[in-house]
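Technical note accompanying the year-one report. For the benefit of new consortium partners, we illustrate the data format agreed upon in the data management plan: each record pairs a sequence with a structure-token string. No post-processing was applied to the example shown here.
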Amino acid sequence: MESRIQRIFLVRVILAAVLLTASSLSIAQHDGSNPGEKTILDSIIEPDLDRRKIRESKIDSEHFEFGFFTGVMSVEDFGSNNVSGLRGAFHISEDWFIEAVYGATEISETSAEALFDIPLLEDRNLRYYNTSLGVNLFPGEIFIGRNHAFNSNVFLILGAGNTRFAGDEYLTYNFGGGFRLFITDWMSFRLDFRNHIFTHTVLGEEKSIQNLETHFGLSIYF
């Protein structure tokens, strides 16, 4: 009787072991037989998304800038007149640049000359050139619509040079600032504000004058 019970118990243990082994093999086959088959969990963790193709802008790394400008220059005691000129710059780094400028204007009569009809000056041409150090501030972007963004920055400038005025030449200091908008990767629009300070004796006594200038122009980079 006792050996019969032992045989029944042994058979049950063997059957349980066989069933457990078969179950393990079935699970392993289900996991490895179709590796490409996706389950619900896979679709949640790895959603099927379409990647957008983005075209990155290519910014030129050239350091030289050349451009022209036109605007208005107010020469103290001689009114406001049109001014135009050329500029060239070397960009030392992303923040600093050195700039050379040449400008020219023709000054108008003073109120005394107009009133008494007595010209004080024979040469009414004013020419200046200077070299300045500039620093770029507040780089950013300007958006026009949804699909167009343009790089921009604000800059300050300080320098010295020479002004030929009334047949003489005068040491001139200049300072100011401006705004630069990059139309493309090789062209920019500029708006500048400058003050030119020098001392002359044209009206009989030594006088320090400040000459404000506002101009806009285009520059190319190469």
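Partners are asked to follow this layout when depositing records. Residues 59 and 185 are 5 Å apart (CA to CA).
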